[in-house]
Amino acid sequence: MHWRQMWPHTLLVAALLYVELSYWSTRSRFGATAQPGSFDNRNWTRERKMQFRDETRRLWHHGFDSYMDHAFPMDELMPKSCRGRGPDWANPSNIGHNDVMANYSLTLVDNLDSFVAFGNRSGFDWAVRQAINYVSFDQDAKPQVFEITIRGMGGLLSAHMFASDLVGNWGFGLPWYRDELLHLAHDLGKRLLPAFETSTGIPFARINLRHGVPPRETFETCTAGAGSLLLEFTALSRLTGDPRFEQVARKAFFAIWNRRTDLGLVPNTINLATGNWLQPEVAGIGAGIDSFYEYALKMYVMTGESEYYDVWREGYAQIMRYSRGPEGFWYRNVGASTGQLASVYIDSLSAFWPGLQVLAGDVENAIRSHLVYWNLWRRFSGIPETFSIASRSGITLGYPLRPEFIESTYFLYRATKDPFYLDVGERVLLDLIRRAKVDCGLSTLSNVQTGEHEDRMESFALSETLKYLYLLFDEDNKISLDHSNLVFTTEGHPISLPKRHLKPVSATSRYFRQKEQNFCPAYQPTRNPPSLLLGESLGLVQSIRSRPDSEYGRFITGLDASVVAPSDERWWDIYGRCEVPQAEEYSFDYVLSIDGSVTEADKNLGPSKVHRVEGGFMIRNITGVKARMTARIDGQGYDVTMLGHHRVLSGQKVFISDPALLGIPGFKSGKQLSRKLAIQLRVRNPATEQQEDLLATTAMFGADPEDVKGTAAFRVGFTSLPITTADPHNVDGCSSHIGRQGTPGAVLVVDRGGCTFLEKLQKAKEAGAAGVIVISDNDEFLNPSIDESEQEYVDAELKDVVLVAVTKSEGHKLIKMLESIVDNSSGLTVEVLPQTLLEDEIKRTRSPNFCISMERP
Questions:
Q1: Which position among 55, 310, 314, 404 bears the catalytic label?
Q2: Whether residue 385 lies in the annotated active site
Q3: CB 111 within 8 A of CB 64
Q4: pLDDT of residue 787
């Protein structure tokens, strides 16, 4: 049966309603469309979005159908020749083709999940069968490890996720499917493992799928190629139970990160044998570096493991500090060790950056950076591979239908819902139809000025560019509405991990980041002023194009201002002014002093000034401490992110206990901070020898359970005490316990809420209890405190009773043990254990790489 018969027939329109000959008559001196009157003032109704969505799908089918008819099972389609192409067997040094093509039906594998995005279940069933029947990685080919990972492995893992979904979350589960795609991905992964057998753990850039790493293979590789394998390799390990892939990808990632310069930047190229950066040691967000930052953030989203967020947070701050231009619109290459300007070029790959900024919650900066690429598209009807900001001219003029710009457009529309981004998508789609569509697929533009074609259709033109365009117009697509840990890989493959494959976070780690709140602020558009024109309404809120700095993107890209689109006329005036923006500092260093005077930074910052405590850092002498301040994503000021050589991680606190500050108005004594913020309790059932160790946080009032010389019975070094519960009608411990059997001399367990922590301790003291364990109603750590006015009473009346709190999860363990003794004659006991420093526990329980990255100066 001819393969197209597997799909429902679709009635194709004879001509596009939007394209007329005169429609494209306005041309610029560059040969491309400068600013065609392509947008009208019609509203983006649901029907109009669906119209463009369906037109995008038809264009995708035109490309994919041509591949299947004329190129399959080869890797790529040559759209001008109407034939297929695989590796260049005759010229192994032709890395432009051989890095990507390895004779495994690349375009099919890269597009398996596109059928899911388009809602085509029968097409997905057919495509999976084709991949199972035709794809093999037993090939005498030498692809780039990075390219075959993101296109081949990523495509297989994403399709496996949908095909194995028999529960029906996505509606694409295949009852006959037996993990064949996962087995293919596993086979590919094992063939790539020899590339990681290096002294640094940084993999070779290329490998022969059948014979391994060839002799005399180059030791040169790039940051993105070596450090952007984590999503696919981690998913492969956790889905197969084979840990090797995640281990090697993680080691490679941190081998790159731990070699960052003193400015916190990672250069482009590295020697994988020595671990030394190669000249000219340039850093930025473009080719060779781009997806390293992308995978740091997306690994955090997919796995929830904070070590990746730490990399993203620090890396992003340093890019914003050194690479971002002073106006905040474009990002230049800089010397990785100096921070000085290294080049004035931007490349098309860096157009992914606004989308990543959206994912990180920095929508305002994403809007600005996107405007640069939008104006490049308006000028060239495509984005040249490299463009000079200085000369405002294209340098490398090819455009292989890359997806990064439309990917960022999609993310910005999902974040802002501004129809401006639908206008952008309309322009992109119509330009692709007009300039790239040929009789046999879609063709790369070898020159965006002349429109000249190259006989090549890269797989990402279908798997990413048109997929993101489709999702932009498909308002209710299930992929877009998914708010789980699903992420798009750098090749546009949606991947997530089920909860059973996520690593649990230890109580110690949760406490170490007890105040971590990684929530992104919602986008708030600017409200419109009343219109000055009689009878005209501009609406309640402003569009992106009405921002006072929106025309700056036109200026720095050299876009001809003589042609204004009809959709811009309401916001644009030839006699108006363009605001030259000035970006606020994103990150800066400040040397602390008692009176605010200028002082030199202490380069030998020792523990007498700054040292680690549970939950963060304690500063005992602020003079000369260099603090790095980094802007908060929510716009609410700055966070301290470094103290000298110490990195302050997300969720950590900085305590100040400098006696010199006590005479300054507004500072309070640090007396309460002298006690430990957390202790460890051991709960035992003497009858069964069952025991549980619980992490508890201490109150900042009452007796200190760590004070071995104190008068409290509930403390370190004292005998075990019995545990008792409050009356069922007094579970919150807010009423009297007097007369409650078993309370005197015991530790009382109560629930959080109903009254203050101080009142709970008062009621326990009145009944003769030695202390109180409060079970919280959530898993956030807390250290209960009191008002300063209550301190004198507590010091006098409650100096020998202790209050501690446990999280809901830890409390659940305690409750289960309490329930187990209902029929036993003896009850539970509790004792306070000597507590090691939390950072020591973390060093023992986390891998060496994490400790190195956490502790590295």
A1: 404
A2: yes
A3: yes
A4: 79
Domain covering 75-258 in this structure, CATH number: 1.50.10.10
In a 3-state reduction of DSSP, which class is residue 685? strand
The residue type found at 509 is S
Pairing mode, if any, of strands 802-806 and 771-775? parallel
Which tokens sit at 525?
């558009």
d(CA 130, CA 72) in angstroms, rounded, equals 10
Q: Of the given ranges (231-240, 260-269, 535-544, 742-751), which has the lowest mean pLDDT?
A: 535-544
Q: Can you tell me the distance from the alpha carbon of 576 to that of 578, in angstroms, rounded to the nearest whole number?
A: 7
pLDDT digits (tens, 9 = 90+) for 525-572: 776 655 555 555 555 667 888 888 888 888 899 987 655 666 666 656
Instruction: For 132, list phi and psi in degrees, rounded to 5.
Output: -65, -40
Highest averaged pLDDT of the listed ranges 37-41, 196-200, 692-696, 795-799: 196-200
What is the DSSP code string of 346-388?
Answer: EEGGGGGHHHHHHHHT-HHHHHHHHHHHHHHHHHHSS--SEEE
The CA distance from 769 to 739, in Å, is 12
DSSP notation for 492-548: S-EE---GGGSPPPPHHHHHHTTT----PPPP-PPBPPPPSSTT----SB--GGGST
Spatial neighbors of 674 by CB under 8 A, at least 6 apart, are none
| Residue ranges of domains in the chain | 75-258, 587-671, 677-834
pLDDT band, residue 32 (cuts 50/70/90) = very low
Sign of CA dihedral 835, 747, 700, 651: positive
> How would you write 635-670 as a 3-class SS string?
CCCEEEEEECCEECCCCCEEEECCHHHCCCCCCCCC
Annotated active-site residue 602? The verdict is no
Query: Dihedral of CA 107/292/250/275: which sign?
Result: positive
How many CB atoms within 10 Å of residue 537? 9
Q: 639-646: long-range contacts at Cβ-Cβ below 8 A with a sequence spacing of 24 or more? A: 641/313, 641/314, 641/317, 641/587, 642/589, 643/605, 643/610, 643/617, 643/619, 644/601, 644/602, 644/605, 644/610, 645/605, 645/857, 646/605, 646/610, 646/612, 646/617
Task: Return the ∠ at Cα 634 (arms to 630 and 640), rounded to 5°.
Answer: 25
CB 528 within 8 A of CB 539: yes
Q: Which residues pair with 698 in a beta bridge?
A: 804
Among the listed residues 290, 347, 431, 568, the single catalytic one is: 290
What's the pLDDT band for 162 if we cut at 50, 70, 90?
Answer: very high
d(CA 517, CA 159): 33
Q: Say how many residues make up the chain.
A: 857
Return the H-helix or E-strand segment holding 394. strand 393-396
Q: What token pair was written down for 637?
A: 């000021």
Number of Cβ within a 10 Å radius of residue 672: 17
The pair of three-digit structure tokens given for residue 523, joined into one six-digit string = 């986008």
Q: What angle do CA 661, 665, 669 make, to 5 degrees?
A: 50
Average confidence (pLDDT) over 81-87: 98
pLDDT exceeds 90 at position 34: no
Each as own residue / partner, the long-range contacts of residues 632-636 (CB below 8 Å, 24 or more positions apart, any chain) are: 633/360, 633/361, 633/362, 633/520, 633/521, 634/361, 634/519, 634/520, 634/521, 635/364, 635/521
Catalytic pick among 113, 307, 314, 385: 385
Output the CATH code of domain 677-834. Answer: 3.50.30.30
Structure tokens at 710: 């104190």
CA 649, 653, 655 angle in degrees (round to 5)?
135
